[in-house]
């Protein structure tokens, strides 16, 4: 297979995935999450149910279609920062960008739908734990960062909670301004003592 064919196939898969996600979100917001079934989404998107499931593992995953991108952005805030950039400011910058995205004008109806659905809230909780685990692995794997695996896991959970708390706050940026100094203090406390 040529690179061009492979590229075309990947673009087609990405377009199909986006079409399914957009269709699902439109139907969920129009009719209500519980009133729309997988077959409804597949029919409206003009794909087979098996095609839908090849792109999304569950109905809940249709709502959180940017989940993998979110996780990748968090881990890249650790792995792609410059060699001398401190960890916590890099994470704060990425969390701020993610919060701005998730609190944009069109996001409120989606979050109301998530908050109203026990299944979606449970799914959101599970992906937040997965994001925290991925972030903790990235922190722990960085040889330039001092600290234990427990410290990495703790900071990762704090960062994920900072995202959730600030997203729900009336003023997300002010909330981050309040939360991140606490995370910074926890990170400093977790560092091994410096010998003089």
Secondary-structure blueprint of this entry?
Blueprint: H1 3-31, H2 38-45, H3 49-55, H4 59-63, H5 67-79, H6 87-102, H7 108-116, H8 118-141, H9 149-168, H10 172-190
Report what the structure shows.
This protein is mostly helical and 196 residues long. It contains ten helices and no strands. Helix 5 (67-79) runs parallel beside helix 8 (118-141). The longest helix has 29 residues, at 3-31. The radius of gyration is 19 Å and the shape is globular. The model has no long low-confidence stretch (mean pLDDT 90).
Question: How is the main sheet built?
Answer: none
Strand segment count? 0
Give the termini separation: 60 Å
Order of helices and strands: HHHHHHHHHH
Number of helices: 10
Category by helix and strand content: mainly alpha
Poorly predicted tracts of residues: none
Gross morphology: globular
| Mean pLDDT rating | 90
How many whole angstroms does the radius of gyration measure?
Answer: 19 Å
Helix content: over 70%
Features:
196 residues, mainly alpha
